[in-house]
Specification:
Arc Repressor Mutant, subunit A, three-stranded antiparallel β-sheet, 5 helices, 3 strands, 12% strand
Length: 95
């Protein structure tokens, strides 16, 4: 008889699959990772992976019932940088 008390192994997915599960582009997920506003990730060897559980927790944090929900503005701002750093990057000369 199988041991039903054994924990289920955590499943990790690469960036493109995590983005697909969240319904966003892989590039957006990469930006969130750089800004520190995305889901928790792990660097295993040279690969970035996401736990399915972490993706669900992150998505649940953005849950809102309406645009007047106190969490709405925070959820809407996920992944954004402040205007000043965007301007400084836009005006920096390209090399």
């Amino acid at each position: 008889m199988p041991d039903r008390t054994a924990p289920v192994a955590t499943r990790y997915v690469p960036t493109h699959e995590a983005a697909s599960l969240l319904g966003i582009s892989p590039r957006t997920l990469e930006k969130y990772r750089c800004h520190g506003s995305g889901p928790t990730f792990r660097k295993l060897g040279g690969r970035v992976v996401y736990s399915i559980d972490d993706l669900e927790v992150w998505a649940d944090q953005a849950a809102c019932r309406s645009t007047s929900d106190p969490n709405y503005e925070e959820a809407r701002a996920a992944g954004r940088t402040d205007q000043g750093s965007r301007d400084s990057l836009a005006t920096r000369p390209h090399r």
